[in-house]
């Protein structure tokens, strides 16, 4: 990690402490201690297991994308990818550092940088597609509650969905309408050239063009393997499902045994979309606000609501930062590239 990254990490920890302190300002310490003492720790372990499965299943996806070109790429090496992604997503605005971090970690394991970039992009496409699919299910189940009880959040939810959907459309255009996309990108970049020097703009344009070419070539090859793509989609769907289930198990740990698992899970999908709108790393502030606003009806006790929110943030955000730092410190294992022989090339 660079010095800038370290300062960003420290800044996010300090900001998290400040937000937690602000959230606890109207909570009696005695009530909070009582709530902690009465927690069902078994349900908390289930919630912790869900976030573990979230990381683990993403590592399986990385392995599936890499294994046809590299042998000896272990689960340990693959697990470093989502953990590094969590760390750098959590300390950069709009989660912009996650993609470069994944490519860097894969490159450390001997994966060609171009191949690693393509894998990260394909993984991102599948992830975004499953986010949109989950959102459509959540809208059918939970939007009436959102519109009725928290109408002011409806606009944020739709805007979050629009951003994720636009990203999917843009990536699909690259995959299936390559020539049009190349021309469209050139047109979109014209206004950017007005504010940049010619050499820097040319460098930017070449870089974007190279990424589009790399992604297109890899996507064409990967989409031919429909079985693998279907497996990756199912695994990613399950990965997100485990993440979305975490608030439900936290509520069970609080003693709320009659909560509707489908409704709670659906509302967490909507929180995910709202959080993505906030430019602050980790959606700090927006995530806490969204959780307390959406789940206040299910957790009527204010002290338990704040405690549930803090546990949720520790599991879904701060744990990722901590594990990401460990992953970056772990010595990478080298994978071995599979070189196709002449016979294989002729068959293809």
Automatic annotation (TrEMBL):
Signal peptide: none
Cell location: Cell membrane
Pfam families: LPG_synthase_TM (PF03706)
Keywords: Antibiotic resistance, Cell membrane, Lipid metabolism, Membrane, Transferase, Transmembrane, Transmembrane helix
UniProt enzyme class: transferase
GO terms under cellular component: plasma membrane
Membrane topology recorded in Swiss-Prot or TrEMBL: Multi-pass membrane protein
Recorded coiled-coil stretches: none
Catalytic reaction list: L-lysyl-tRNA(Lys) + a 1,2-diacyl-sn-glycero-3-phospho-(1'-sn-glycerol) = a 1,2-diacyl-sn-glycero-3-phospho-1'-(3'-O-L-lysyl)-sn-glycerol + tRNA(Lys)
Top-level taxonomic group: Bacteria
One function term, GO molecular function aspect: phosphatidylglycerol lysyltransferase activity
Its EC number(s): 2.3.2.3
Chain ranges passing through the membrane: 41-62, 124-147, 153-178, 228-250, 270-295, 307-330
Listed NCBIfam families: flippase-like domain
Family from the record: Belongs to the LPG synthase family.
Function as written in the Swiss-Prot or TrEMBL entry: Catalyzes the transfer of a lysyl group from L-lysyl-tRNA(Lys) to membrane-bound phosphatidylglycerol (PG), which produces lysylphosphatidylglycerol (LPG), a major component of the bacterial membrane with a positive net charge. LPG synthesis contributes to bacterial virulence as it is involved in the resistance mechanism against cationic antimicrobial peptides (CAMP) produces by the host's immune system (defensins, cathelicidins) and by the competing microorganisms.
Descriptive protein name: Phosphatidylglycerol lysyltransferase
Organism: Lactiplantibacillus fabifermentans DSM 21115
